Amino acid sequence: MEPVDFSANAPGLLIPKLPDYLFEDDGLYTPEVGEWGEKKYALVGRYDRLFSTGMKVKWDVRVYIDLFSGAGKARIKGTDKIRPASPLLALSVPDGFNRYIFCDNDNRCLDALDTRVKKYYPSLDVTFLKETATSWLTKSQV
Ligand SMILES: C[S@@+](CC[C@H](N)C(=O)[O-])C[C@H]1O[C@@H](n2cnc3c(N)ncnc32)[C@H](O)[C@@H]1O
């Protein structure tokens, strides 16, 4: 079996390349993550894409909820590598979710994510929750 290539934006089976602008420094708030982030985001992006395409024939409506969303991009610690983080990976899937809900209790993260979503995905249905995950879950009685 071929080893999995976790390097940034490496295409694989059924995995299209992501746009270069998701890997660029856009000057907005971008938290640092450890070098493990490289592997994490490669796996998360692959899973998002496999899940959303696989489930589109099973469920008519698919909602993506990320209660600890972060800012949408992350910088790999000690490097100048920028990676699309979980929200932008989910927004990029070829068979998109019908609705996206992003929650974070850090205004710097949600403000940066809001700006990135307006810039890169202006037509998608996205709700931002500036509160703790617990407070939203309590109100929603999920
Ligand atoms: C590890 S980071 C971002 C993770 C992001 N899902 C990703 O993979 O790129 C976790 C985020 O959760 C936020 N956070 C921490 N505690 C929270 C809480 N109780 N409710 C909502 N957000 C919280 C932090 O501000 C931070 O941006």
Characteristic key phrases:
Rossmann fold, globular, three-stranded mixed β-sheet, three-stranded parallel β-sheet, 142 residues, alpha/beta, binds S-adenosylmethionine
Structural class: alpha/beta
String of helices and strands: EHEEEHEHEH
H/I helix tally: 4
Molecules bound to protein: S-adenosylmethionine
Counting DSSP E segments of at least 2 residues, the number of strands comes to 6
Low-confidence stretches: none
The radius of gyration computed from the alpha-carbon positions, rounded to a whole number of angstroms, is 15 Å
CATH superfamily: Vaccinia Virus protein VP39
Per CATH, what is the topology?
Rossmann fold
What is the CATH architecture annotation?
A: 3-Layer(aba) Sandwich
* Strand arrangement across the biggest beta sheet: 1-3-4
- The percent range for helix content is 25-40%
Brief digest:
The chain has 142 residues and is of the alpha/beta class.
Explained architecture:
It is built from four helices and six strands. It has a single domain, classed as Rossmann fold (3-Layer(aba) Sandwich), CATH 3.40.50.150. The chain is an alpha/beta fold and 142 residues long. The mean pLDDT is 89. The protein has helices at 36-55, 86-91, 107-120, 133-140; strands at 32-33, 63-66, 73-76, 82-84, 99-103, 126-129. The longest helix is centred in the first third of the chain and has 20 residues, at 36-55. The strands form two sheets. Strands 1-3-4 form a three-stranded mixed β-sheet. The protein has a three-stranded parallel β-sheet with strand order 2-5-6. S-adenosylmethionine is lined by residues 66-70, 74, 85-86, 103-106, 109, 132-134.
